[in-house]
Amino acid sequence: MGSPLKLQGVTRKFKDTVALDSLDLEVAEGELVALLGPSGCGKTTALRIIAGLDRANSGQVWVNGVQIDKLPAHKRNMGMVFQSYSLFPNLNAQENVAFGLKMRGTSKSQRENRAQELLALVGLPDHAKRFTHQLSGGQQQRVALARALAFEPDVLLLDEPLSALDAKVRANLRDEIRSLQVKTGTTTIFVTHDQEEAMSMADRVAVMNGGKIAQIDAPDVLYHSPADQFVAGFVGQMNRIPAQVVKDKVRVLDSLVGIRSIHEFQRTDLVALVRPEALKVAAKASGNCRVVARSFLGPMSKLLLQTAEGVEFQAVLTSEQSANLHSGDAVQVSVKPGDYLVVPS
Questions:
Q1: Which residues neighbour 212 within 8 Å (Cβ) at sequence distance 6 or greater?
Q2: By Cβ atoms counted within 10 A, which residue in 148, 207, 283, 316 is the most buried?
Q3: Does the pLDDT of residue 210 top 70, yes or no?
Q4: Prediction pTM value
Q5: Where in the chain is CATH 2.40.50.140?
Q6: 298, 307 contact by CB (below 8 A)
């Protein structure tokens, strides 16, 4: 089983650039937390500091109640999987998986048995004697994952492990990694810039911005209750629709909705951040919008809509609901309660 992980006030500066700004993070035993954010937000720096591949300017890293930030990387019980696999080309799959055990002085029979066990766990029981060039990209990443788990690490660190794979392999391996993580109970940090990966795999997602965690929550909470404009815009798709204050409510399109925002509303130039699926659309000759285009996506369809003022936004409906809506049709659009955030424009 994994161990609880804690980062306390971790700061990392590179000359005049602050990569991490007094970062605090706690990960429970057996939990998978995704660090999600754009390039340069600090997520990979945080991972490298946990692994011991980089040192913080200040702050502490704890695993299982023991402070480890002064320990060298080889004395931290961390398993790590990189984007580039980093397998040894001169070793076969079994030897790659067993490599960490060999460095720890494990007997040959024990490490061979453990390697075979892990290769079976990642679905490659018949690939033990194959070398790197004889494996596909997805198979190489499975071997890298087995190697990282072989010595039962306290924490498993995954640094964009799927980004080099094609879409279908990436989707399959994403599910396999999550299933494997649950089976082994290994505490895991998963770094990614792909929101779909983060939202589908993690127990909690930490959205990072400017070296800080903007919000950390379960995926559904993050999606439906973003803390601010950055999180709302980075997680999922958000429309920006003009809004006006009407007494203690806000008018969005023709809907009066309750105010749900951290901002004061002394200003009149406001926008509502509304998810595409939080819009109701119905054909109506005197409607407040018109259909610009419809995109069929299987069970769901996406509508590009435009207000009389020329503001464009998108709605997502079931394909059955939108089957009779075509380019140029007039429609009435309203906002469902809940999924919106009103902010200054």
A1: 21, 22, 23, 42
A2: 207
A3: yes
A4: 0.88
A5: 237-344
A6: no
- The helix/strand count (H/E) of the chain reads as 8, 20
Residues 6+ apart with CB under 8 A from 10: 20, 22, 23, 24, 46, 49, 56, 58, 59, 60, 61
First to last CA, the chain: 48
- pLDDT tens digits along 62-82: 999 999 999 999 999 999 998
Give me the architecture of the 237-344 domain, per CATH.
Answer: Beta Barrel (2.40)
- Domain 5-233 indexed as CATH 3.40.50.300: yes
Structure tokens at 261: 């925002």
Interacting residues of 273 by C-beta distance below 8 A, sequence separation 6+: 226, 229, 232, 233, 238, 239, 240, 340, 341, 342, 343
pLDDT exceeds 50 at position 262: no
